[in-house]
């Protein structure tokens, strides 16, 4: 109550914030108007990255608990939706950065060597905490990205690696889903049959299409065989996953959620999966657009960090995706009419107390 | 050449930047997850405001010179286009802030009293340097906005007021336009006649429209009379401006630019006017959307700064517009076919040396 | 199975779609390149309006049922979220339209008289079906908007008026909320006490603020009194609403939802309210931005429909808001710690069967 | 004057436009709410594509003339900027389409076979008229894309191929640039020397970097050698282009424009190049994001057109780029200080008559 009145500039630490732009060109007495933009764009990115990590902290707390309470699930979805909103903004920020031309960038580019955006600890930490495995991370010039980091940042990244990732928490939470035991049968068996029947129908369709060139027909049929095999693998009791990163039970649960999404108890879970895909997609998009921008800015020349920048970025666009399995699920969806009916006992458990 | 290698985190002063978020709720031991977002959004705004001021610095340097060189004009347009791009981003940032609900805001809102976004010196400075006159600024709770500022910030704002504004530099630069002297006649006379003829035609059209209710007809005819009077005023040799903030010669020049925009020597000037309107419009939009957000967040309750927040913001949306005169120009445009032909002597001067 | 193969252009009726642009300027032999843009932007708007109406059809079906099933609630939220996404796109479309300059518009503007966007039946129908009451609609030039419509369109709008609006369905659905009866006490009583206590605290705060000018203090205290009165009115058993458009029980339910949003049974309802505010806000924004654009395009001259366009649009921006009551709720929120605890019996009913 | 009054709905042909949505599911009696969205999104795309083609028509007329007048150049830039603005909107439209889930798409997906977005004649025509060569177009399932088109559409695409493309007109216009003859020396020689000196400095920098692993050093030096060779090729009198699609003189002119962009006579040309890169980048982005969406929607299953959809789309994202050469230019930029000074005679010709 006896608190001192708060002043805007003090609250936001503007004395520090607005004196943290110290262009190298200024130090060198070089005229490089756009270095200020370059600094500020990157600082804005780092502020947003901090916010994303702040959200991931609460997600970790909420999602790591067993069981995840209903209140916590609402918060998790909300926090991830906010992360998605922030990521959309980071894509939009590229519009501002692109008002700098390659020629203007040259005014100060060499002064920054060998600094590089690859050294953003926070961005690496976001990738890691979402679930990008160290061994999946594409090496830069044949070296782990860590070699570019300062010892302190390297330690910080190691620590981030020790924490439970969103991917792993998702995998475990999905695998605990209580609705897959359908009494006598199981969702697994009922759905596997339905999918196989449906894919077989697709194969018949292809075989019957006389206009289709032979070579193509073979390719498509092979794709269906591969789909069936990959599906069988995740449904096998001791399956090796068949190329899935999620465990078999987790994939089964994700399918269940996708199919019965409108049931009250499933809705939050459905939002969760959708938002994780949004995040994955927007990060992929950001990487890709970033790659295009770097190409426009630098051409084929070496990046400020000595890397062959845009090619690297383009590679990571795909290979750093964390939730690709969720996208793959679409392969195994079947039309509404072919989806097995929920047993009454399961159906009842998906509603609210007051609606029984 | 013997420069020390630059490291990303050092270059961006991340040690300062990322430790400048110090939530009041943390100090008070209150759990308020969203205060971090609140801080970071505002810090991101302040970073962008700094960038806008950085651009306005160069605009002032370039646009204050007499004459403004052709190279400088290209830079001015470029810098203003960048400001517009940044403003679009500041509108987009509201999407992120709106992921905070009013109920979550309550967790820490009272702790911030009486701090308020009205205390953003940089935002005030941007308005001022674009050309918002001190006497036009809407008072907040019947007091000048300065009374909310710290002495240091008040001084800084006073200093900003001493600098040449974009509006004033525009006014003077327009008034110097060398193409309005058409030898015997003048652009002024030729165009005034053309406009009056055209507005008279509009009036005839209204008088002839029998379906139009009497009351409305009178209103519309009165509007046309008013338009003619206001137009006459700016064209009178010693005109008082007739409600225009720009001087008569400046308005004439702006009209000239709008009509003959495709001529090489006029194109950069046309871009300049269009970009200033973009800036005005996007700032207006930002204020308006900000007002809507504050209403959603706070209801009719008092703002953190003690103001009746959203109503005030909505008022400023209109009244803080700086370049409204440029929007008014449309009133005096006439169809292409009615526009006077350029005298050959003027036409020649609008081209390039090599194209003569 | 024996269906004929579908061809893209046939499926989309491109032969009709792409021949539906018939510029008036072409008929008159006038060169007006931008009329095509003008037509296509408006046609794109009409396509999206049709989609919004399509969503509102299903919302009406789902939301009009008693009770609204859990599955239906999921669909309603989804459909409204889609409408919001479409509305964001309609705002973005203005960026494209603004590439047309006022001078280019003049090339064909007079040829369109007296057609006007005010004649868009679909837009009127959207407003109506969301819940804009006929008597609230701002008259255009002192006449009902219908007078501008063709007889067929007028009939269609009348029919739209007969249908249950989203606002009315919301009001009724909220009023049926089963969680407000707290046994001995009621949510109403418990919360009213909590709010009054809180607003009294605010009043104390204002009285104790010596730095606050007398005039302002009175104004703020009066605002609080008014807030208490308006709140009392909705909580009175036979309240006249105190300026609320929603019924007392509906407002109470909306408050309940806002405060206990994280409970599973409340989450979909919370999403619903949030999305309706998003829709209201984005439509308001669209109208406002549209007004700015019209001003830029036309100046103070008469609109194509003979109205004083932009001033009218600006008025509707505020007065055509449908869900303003939901924004007002924020006034009556109190900090988490002051919110009454849910009775155990109610709490239990808000969870899932399986989580009891 | 005696024109009949125009009515909004008639002007926009709404009777045709709004009856052109004929869902296949409706014909089959299948309940598929989202097919309407699917149709309307695609129709909105086709409307925008028509607008883009309308702009390309005028660009072709203006840019195909010899010489291109100054007025025409202003229009060309304006029209291309509008195309860019439309393309940004088409990216935003994906946000709306993504509100349809894969499971909802399944409700009607099979009914559309074998129709596919690949059959959009207008999109193909846009690519073609910008300058995508028939031989560069990635075949779909080993066949030319034309094989999917109806005979009429195939003919129309053939006709589009006969027209001068933006790429070709750009190439020719650049090659005619009158400012490359510097009297005794030439821009070509002066700049080649400057670049080679600069790249040699880069090579020295790499050789001196002891921390760089051997393998990497070799790779980077090889890249520089390759850059010099490619550069030499375009500067050779009878060069084969060294991998450039633009002719040698055109590349030289594009470099000239990039370096001396602020000179009045160069500014419109600089805008032109920047806008073409914007268009290329946004189309690339659209293709890429489209690919991600298709993957999310369909998984690895066959597309509606029988293609392995998203993989194909991803391939075209890169390979259908038309103005990649402009991005490559950045490789050959050198810092401002190293850029050769313009001879006085050339400098004079780049200004306006009145500024001499």
From TrEMBL, chains A, B, C, D:
List, in alphabetical order, the GO biological process terms annotated in this UniProt record: L-tryptophan catabolic process to acetyl-CoA; L-tryptophan catabolic process to kynurenine
Q: Where are its TM segments located?
A: none
Which coenzyme or cofactor does it need? heme
Gene3D superfamilies documented for this protein: 1.10.287.3810, 1.20.58.480
Its UniProt pathway annotation is: Amino-acid degradation; L-tryptophan degradation via kynurenine pathway; L-kynurenine from L-tryptophan: step 1/2
Keyword terms of this UniProt record: Dioxygenase, Heme, Iron, Metal-binding, Oxidoreductase, Tryptophan catabolism
Q: Which family does it belong to?
A: Belongs to the tryptophan 2,3-dioxygenase family.
Would you tell me the protein name for this molecule? Tryptophan 2,3-dioxygenase
The scientific name of the source species is Phreatobacter stygius
């Amino acid at each position: 109550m006896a608190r001192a009145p708060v002043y805007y500039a003090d609250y936001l630490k503007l004395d520090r914030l607005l004196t943290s732009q110290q262009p190298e060109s200024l130090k060198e007495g070089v005229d490089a108007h756009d270095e200020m933009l370059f600094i500020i764009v990157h600082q804005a990115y780092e502020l947003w990255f901090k916010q994303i990590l702040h959200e991931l902290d609460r997600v970790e707390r909420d999602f790591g608990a067993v069981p995840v309470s209903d209140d916590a699930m609402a918060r998790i979805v909300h926090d991830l939706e906010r992360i998605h909103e922030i990521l959309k903004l980071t894509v939009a920020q590229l519009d501002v950065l692109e008002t700098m031309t390659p020629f203007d960038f040259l005014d100060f580019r060499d002064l920054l060597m060998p600094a590089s955006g690859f050294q953003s600890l926070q961005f690496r930490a976001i990738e890691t905490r979402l679930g990008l495995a160290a061994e999946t991370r594409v090496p830069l010039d044949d070296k782990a990205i860590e070699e570019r980091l300062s010892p302190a940042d390297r330690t910080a990244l190691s620590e981030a690696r020790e924490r439970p990732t969103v991917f792993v928490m998702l995998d475990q939470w999905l695998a605990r889903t209580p609705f897959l035991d359908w009494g006598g049968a199981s969702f697994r068996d009922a759905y596997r049959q339905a999918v196989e029947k449906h894919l077989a129908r697709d194969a018949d369709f292809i075989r019957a299409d006389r206009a289709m060139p032979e070579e193509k027909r073979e390719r498509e049929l092979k794709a269906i065989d591969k789909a069936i095999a990959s599906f069988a693998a995740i449904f096998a009791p001791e399956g090796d996953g068949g190329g899935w990163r999620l465990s078999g039970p987790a994939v089964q649960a994700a399918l269940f959620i996708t199919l019965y999404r409108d049931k009250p108890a499933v809705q939050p879970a459905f939002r969760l999966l959708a938002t994780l895909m949004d995040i994955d997609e927007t990060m992929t998009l950001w990487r890709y657009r970033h790659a295009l921008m770097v190409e426009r800015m630098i051409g084929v020349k070496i990046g400020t960090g000595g890397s062959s920048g845009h090619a690297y970025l383009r590679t990571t666009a795909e290979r750093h995706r964390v939730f690709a399995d969720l996208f793959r699920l679409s392969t195994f969806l079947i039309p509404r009419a072919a989806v097995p009916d929920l047993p009454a006992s399961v159906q009842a458990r998906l509603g609210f107390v007051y609606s029984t």
